[in-house]
Design a protein that fits this description.
The protein is mainly alpha-helical. It has a domain of 148 residues: Tetratricopeptide repeat domain (Serine Threonine Protein Phosphatase 5, Tetratricopeptide repeat). It contains 19 helices and no strands.
Length: 402
Amino acid sequence: MKKVILSIALVAFATGAFAQKKVVSAAEKNFKKGDLELALTEIDAALDNPETKDNPETPLLKARILTKKFGQDSSNVASTVETGRAALEQFTKAMEMSGNDKESKVGKEVYKEEIPDLGENFRPYSIRTLKNSAFEKAIVTYENEDMEMAYEFFNLMSDIDPTDTTASFNAGYIANDIGNYEDAKKQFKKLIEVKEYNKLSAYYLLIQIISGEDKEPEEAYKYVTRARADYPDDKTLSEFEVQLLLQMNKMDEAMASVKEALVSDPNNAGLLLRYGYLLEQSGDKAGALEEYKKSVVADPNFFEGNYYTGAIFLDQAREILSKINDLTDDEWEKNAPTMTKQAEGLYAESVQYFEKGLSLRPDNVEIMEILYNVHVRLKNTAEVEKYNKMLVAKLGADWMEK
């Protein structure tokens, strides 16, 4: 009797196992036919059954079904990304169950190459297929200016193949563009760890996010230091270094850094401007003016250079007028006319720089007001009226009262 019962149990066991294998076979058949929803229902049943769930070919088949579904979904919305990520999860699970051995039977299927122009039933629907489909969707959504989804598909590509630096950079670049700074930093930090990769642009963007968005100049400076070690001759990194030292109020270090940078790059408008700023902060306004003017010579369309040059002329004029007010009666009669003429000469000198700045930024109301007041001081009636009309158009007739 015991033998009979055991035989029955073995038959039942074999029948159950056979039935579950039939479910897997049915799932594969429906996958090839294109009935993907039915195939998913069947493979999910196999993944829930003890007889088939531990076979790595079961999650592999689900990954292939999901990859096919992902590729066919032209809506390219959040649910499309979820399908792609679910496929990646199943490929990862199949590999883990196979000891992450790419040379195993399952490993070879997971990483089977996608050969262009193969017929539908000959495509491998491997992890390579998944990556290619993600790339196609990234390009389509990018060209349609759907940056949120373009980021998601490039990010998926990056997770499918962490060695694909182009996918990581594109994901980081778009994330930065749409204000997703944390994900952008994640991508750029990953890239700067890749030994052979030209990571200069990744450094630029990472430093700008940390210093500008995060407002952490000390942290940004760490990356500048590291970047300069990798790219010692890069001029932009020199500018970043000076800028961050200024943000950290490390004037002496900033002065040393900008002087060093100007030796090899004497016509860099940005560096000249920062050098001028440092000189101005130290009280050397004449030296600052010289450097500001040099920055405009180096780049006539450099807005900041024009603005700072005009502003320092105004500061010098105001200082002279302030001194006139402190003169005694005797000194006033003797020196005031000459000093007033000198101050007005400085006001006049500022005009060309502010006019250039306004030509570069035509909607800059601050510069319009400066030019209005300068021409009032110089009694240039026509220019006063010109800038008054511009300000009325921008701010209204009562702009002076605002």
